[in-house]
Amino acid sequence: MPATWCILPIFLTATGIYINSKRRKTALAKRSHCIEQLSYSYRNWLKLIIQRSEMQSLEAQQAYQQALEQAKQELSNNTHQLRSNVLDYTTLADRTSPPWHSETWQNWGPGTLMPGVVRLGVFTLQMDQIDAKSAII
Question: How many Cα neighbours within 13 Å face the side chain of 86?
């Protein structure tokens, strides 16, 4: 009988260790599964964020290009309108004032009457220079 009593505690201890080991393995398996699920969710979340970021970046780039093209078109339209206005004033000034290289200016003195239009100079703007510079922007 005493031998049985010695074996019984050893058996119970071994059984307890086995049960605890099994529980630990089950708990570790559950934790591992939870970690895998969290990792999978995190990767999907990152993919979604990257896709949204790329989409917003593309939309912003398109809006920028559209605004830039609109600004270039407005500049071109305004420049053409300004050019025609300036040419009208130049024509009027040419009728009432002699060219700068004329001998009339050699003996010129201020008059008593002021003409309605006075030439202040000539400013030339080449359209191809504007287009080349606007392409740099």
Answer: 12
